[in-house]
Design a protein that fits this description.
This protein has about 775 residues and is an alpha/beta fold. The chain is built from 29 helices and 24 strands. The chain has four domains: about 180 residues, Lambda Exonuclease, Chain A (Alpha-Beta Complex); about 240 residues, 3-Layer(aba) Sandwich (Rossmann fold), CATH 3.40.50; about 120 residues, Fumarase C, Chain B, domain 1; about 210 residues, Rossmann fold, CATH 3.40.50.
């Protein structure tokens, strides 16, 4: 669907028009449409051959289009009718529909079950009735239903009241179009507060710089230090673009829920409470399911069982839910509990009526989840401003979204349930071969060619059977059904030509399908949007980030913000006494522990020590405990949610002498509580990625580079970006300062030093304990 709000025009297909509805449906098209499409194509071919035999003048896949004036809206509709059969002065428009229903049925029941199909054919007849090519002809419509189970058919001729159904649907569409038009008028009058009550150094001209960049390029890369106010700056830019009519909608993506919460808070501070802007944070499905009283997720049908009926009974009007600008998750859960409707489906249904969507990367970049956004009525990427926060995480997150794993134990669960499900024998046999292959897999960095061919052969066979045979989801547990269906995701992975891929086995009986690089996919998505603003404190080195995202740096506008208050705020030193590389770090555990102890004695507040791994942190903690039992140490716990992370940091800062944190974890990238409270930090080694099959494969993909250049791209650049991110959170406001000890002689190598952020690049060199004391006493 394409909306042209200024002109009050809309363009859509016959299918889009017929399926258009406000609110959820019972059908999960993502997991039911695959086999139906394949089977439908087979039946179309057979019935085409039959029609050619019966009617010499039959034509097929005939384009039908027209413009319908609905009050002051021009609605352009286009599609292709399956068969057109001329009989003298009459013409029959025939649509063929495959159904998983025993036929024949009473026509009223068919209409009730398959209203969309009747509406599609009725729309073709309305368009044909207004087409001069069919003037003075008697127009008839025929729906030919095919029962895919019993292979029976039933023909239904459309009655003369088909136009009533069309007009009813047009009225539903019209109400939505009017709402979007009123939303546009509301946005033109949008009034919002500036994000900052007073400007810090560097903020004075940033909006002007962004506006200028936005007028020159579709892609803006915005780099500003942590604490600069990127979220507020980006929202000021975005709201201005909405108000000025550049875009109809803004999507604001972050890689962590902490960032989403910050966006919503910033919006609340910039807007009045009169609902001038309607914005919404789409939380993930797990959050919606927590404490949900419906428990639909536990049954075989899932959340969509009788969903449309429950929705209609509830009478929820999403456009009326945003009187105060947004809707909270607790309000949504309360609505769901009151009306017995899945809260996640309420959230999805609310999206078309909001101007700003705040969400995780997955809703735009994941091939599994992006249909939630891209299938929304009226959503048009080319009329949307996309903002990507924490952009340094984008390449790895998108690659992870295309990656998946499949194990022998997964397959055994599926095969056990297939035995008792009403499925075809070929599907069971195909899946049995897949199970045997997984059983024979041994750990390897890359599958050999013979096994890789077998993987493709068996997955193709399973997916072929899934496409040709309907699957009764109620006969499976959710876990087994999703794992069976993920075979189609593996096939998409194997067939995807633009991904750099690796198929390997980390252990016996386990296959990993890993995306090494999704740069082309990232570029394709970004290109589809009207404009994209990518921001982070660490987008440099520009060359590497641009390559990872598949974008041409010369076609982007770079906006780099300066913060004068950060200059001189860091006192950085490199400890040349130790080598923390994997082969030699054990020789220096004692020195590392003694250094932590010494820093704790000299600092006036708790110190932070960043490690490349939990094991390293735990080992040094043991040495520290043995050497100095008086040093109170807290090691970052695993698997904490955001509230638990905040609580851990607060308690540790009050009660501990040192906090051991792991680089690249949420503690190093999401915790914004350290600025001004922690003034001494030690980074133990450059935290290079683990040497494993994935990194070795990435090195092989860089065969066009020298060994040193490839190592820098695959290992050094990602590692140093993590360090820059962690250190950037220590100074978030004027007046804050931090001492940073880079504890490894490798940091002194030019290839590492050059990757440090500019304010860390002239470090003091420490060669002895005396040198450490001298550095810490320097002002």
């Amino acid at each position: 669907m394409r909306l042209f709000l200024n002109d009050k025009k809309v363009s859509l297909s016959v299918r889009e028009f017929s399926e258009f509805h406000l609110g959820p449906s019972n059908t999960d098209y993502s997991k039911t449409g695959l086999w139906r499409v394949e089977l439908g194509q087979t039946w179309h071919k057979e019935l085409k051959a039959q029609a050619i035999t019966e009617y010499s003048n039959a034509t097929f896949e005939i384009p039908v289009s027209g413009i319908w004036l609905q009050k002051d809206w021009a609605v352009s509709i286009q599609g292709r009718i399956d068969q057109v059969i001329h009989q003298g002065n009459s013409v029959i428009f025939r649509e063929i529909k495959t159904v998983n229903t025993t036929l024949p049925l009473a026509e009223d029941e068919l209409l009730d079950r398959f209203r969309i199909y009747f509406l599609q054919l009725g729309t073709y007849l309305v368009l044909a009735d207004n087409n001069p090519s069919y003037r003075d002809m008697l127009i008839h419509g025929e729906l030919l239903f095919i029962d895919i189970t019993e292979k029976n058919s039933q023909s239904v001729m459309i009655s003369t009241d088909f136009k009533d159904h069309f007009l009813n649907q047009m009225e539903i569409l019209y109400s939505f179009l009017e709402q979007r038009w009123l939303s546009m008028q509301r946005l033109r009058q949008l009034d919002f507060n500036l994000p900052f009550s007073s400007l810090r150094s560097g903020q004075e001209h940033i909006r002007e710089m962004l506006d200028r960049a936005g007028n020159q390029s579709k892609v803006i890369l915005f780099e500003a230090p942590t604490g600069f106010g990127k979220t507020g700056t980006a929202l000021e830019f975005a709201l201005g673009r909405l108000r000025d009519g550049h875009y109809d909608r803004v999507i604001f993506l972050t890689s962590k829920s902490t960032g989403q919460i910050q966006v919503v808070r910033q919006l609340e501070s910039m807007l009045s409470g009169d609902g001038g802007l309607q914005y919404f944070q789409l939380r993930n499905k797990i959050e919606h399911a927590q404490d949900c009283s419906l428990r639909y997720c536990d049954n075989g049908y899932g959340c969509r069982h009788n969903l449309a009926e429950q929705w209609e009974k509830a009478g929820i009007a999403p456009m009326l839910l945003f009187e105060k600008g947004t809707l909270t998750l607790s309000q949504i859960k309360k609505l769901g509990d009151t009306h017995r409707v899945c809260p996640y489906e309420i959230s999805r249904s609310a999206l078309p009526f909001t101007d700003v969507w705040v969400a995780d990367y997955n809703y735009v970049f994941s091939p599994i989840n992006n249909n939630i956004f891209f299938s929304q009525p009226g959503f048009e990427p080319s009329q949307t401003l996309l903002i990507i926060d924490e952009g340094h995480n984008l390449p790895s997150r998108v690659a992870d979204g295309y990656s998946l794993s499949y194990s022998q134990s997964d397959a055994e669960i599926v095969i056990n349930e297939l035995q008792f499900a009403n499925i075809s024998s070929p599907l069971y046999l195909a899946y049995e071969k897949w199970l045997r292959l997984l059983d024979q897999v041994k750990a390897t960095d890359r599958l050999n060619e013979k096994t890789a061919i077998q993987v493709r052969e068996y997955i193709d066979a399973i997916v072929k059977e899934l496409r040709q045979s309907p699957i009764d989801k109620s006969l499976f547990t959710n876990a087994a059904f999703n794992k069976l269906w993920s075979c189609s995701i593996i096939k998409n992975f194997l067939d995807h030509e633009s991904l750099e891929k690796l198929i390997w086995a980390p252990d016996s009986g386990v296959l990993n399908f890993t995306c090494l690089n999704a740069a082309k996919e990232i570029e394709s998505v970004i290109r589809s949007f009207g404009q994209t603003l990518i921001m982070s404190a660490t987008l440099t080195p520009k060359k590497h980030f641009s390559e990872f995202c598949g974008i041409n740096p010369e076609l982007c506008q770079w906006v780099e913000a300066e913060a004068e208050w950060r200059k001189g705020a860091y006192q950085v030193a490199i400890d040349l006494r130790v080598d923390t590389s994997l082969k030699t770090r054990a020789h220096h555990y004692t020195t590392t522990a003694e250094t932590v102890s010494l820093l704790c004695q000299m600092a006036n507040d708790p110190i932070i020590v960043y490690f490349p791994s939990y094991r390293y942190a735990e080992t040094v903690g043991e040495y520290l405990s043995a050497a100095s039992s008086r040093i109170r140490t807290a090691i970052q716990p695993r698997n904490l949610d955001l509230a638990e992370q905040d609580l851990f940091i607060e308690e540790a800062l009050l009660n501990m002498d040192t906090l051991f944190l792991v680089l690249s974890s949420s503690f190093s990238e999401s915790i914004d509580m350290l600025g001004g409270r922690v003034t001494t930090v030690m980074v133990v080694g450059p935290a290079l990625p683990e040497v494993n099959a994935i990194q070795r494969a990435k090195m092989e993909e860089c065969d066009y580079l020298s060994r040193d250049e490839a190592f820098l791209k695959v290992y050094q650049a990602p590692a140093m970006m993590k360090i820059n991110q962690a250190l950037g959170r220590l100074v978030r406001a004027p007046g804050q300062q931090a001492r940073v000890l880079l504890h490894c002689k490798r940091f002194a190598q030019q290839s590492y030093t050059n990757l440090l952020a500019e304010e860390y690049r002239q470090p003091y060199k420490i060669k002895s304990e005396e040198g450490l004391l001298n550095w810490h006493q320097r002002k």
